[in-house]
Specification:
The chain is 51% helix and 21% strand. By secondary structure, it is of the alpha+beta class. Strand 7 and strand 8 form a beta hairpin.
């Protein structure tokens, strides 16, 4: 393995670029003064000493004094590996507690308001980080009349990220066109009977995802409300699932 690759590996273990180069130089040279390591790692005297001090704090170099001159030695790579294993084991033991903190955080809630089309587009971008599928209600024609490039700006990006979407929409011409492109855009659309789910009554777009709910209104002004709440998410998800199974297409 090339030295540059070894530097990358060490950096992944918490070493800086300079610390990686000095440690590797120390492995190659054995017990030597700082000046030898600085020359090998292409660092000046001050930087070399500062870097060696940090490596000592990490416990990966030791000092011996020979004839009044400090000599530095690097710990064996096996010892470095054991230290990494110990850190991993500590993280493994702490995992339940860390998970508990995450669970507590899911019960917190927040509400954000986005006003204007530009801001609303940022709200839509939040859904592109979803770790769950996105569920939604939409007036397919309405959103595209206000945001003509919606499919290119948002739908295509969601599809590329492999975030699946299940949506309910009015059974009109645009709704049928959207449904016809489901396979292309990684989604499943079910069309609702117009008498119960008319375009006239459905002015908002709603997306339910990842413990959040996004409500977007285009009339009379464009704005969005993003609610982060596990309880709201779970309730709205249940309502959506009931409509999904009982829609009258």
């Amino acid at each position: 393995m090339k030295k540059d690759s070894l530097v990358i590996v060490l950096k992944s273990q918490g070493f800086t670029d300079k610390e990686s180069r000095v440690y590797l130089a120390n492995l190659e040279e054995g017990m030597v003064p700082a000046s030898v390591l600085g020359k090998k790692a292409h660092l000046n005297r001050v930087t070399t000493y500062e870097t060696l001090k940090k490596l000592q704090e990490k416990g990966v170099t030791t000092i011996s004094v020979i004839k009044g001159i400090k000599h530095f030695s690097a710990i064996a790579p096996e010892a470095l590996f054991n230290a990494s294993e110990n850190r991993l084991e500590s993280l493994k033991q702490a995992l339940p507690a860390l998970t508990g903190l995450t669970a507590e955080a899911t019960h917190k809630h927040s509400v954000q308001l986005y006003e204007g089309l530009k801001a609303v587009k940022r709200a839509y971008a939040e859904t592109l980080h979803s770790r769950t599928e996105i569920l939604g209600y939409a007036n397919s024609k309405n959103i595209r009349s206000h945001w003509p490039s919606y499919d290119q700006d948002y739908v295509a990006k969601r599809s590329e990220k492999k975030i699946y979407f299940r949506g309910l929409a009015p059974n009109d011409a645009m709704g049928r066109k959207v449904k016809s492109e489901d396979e292309k855009y990684f989604r499943s659309t079910r069309l609702m009977n117009q008498t119960h789910f008319s375009a006239r009554k459905l002015e908002n777009e709603i997306k339910i995802f990842d413990n959040q709910m996004l409500i977007v209104s285009f009339e009379p002004t464009v704005f969005a409300i993003l609610t982060k709440s596990q309880t709201v998410y779970e309730t709205q998800k249940q309502i959506f699932e009931m409509m999904w199974e009982n829609r009258n297409a």
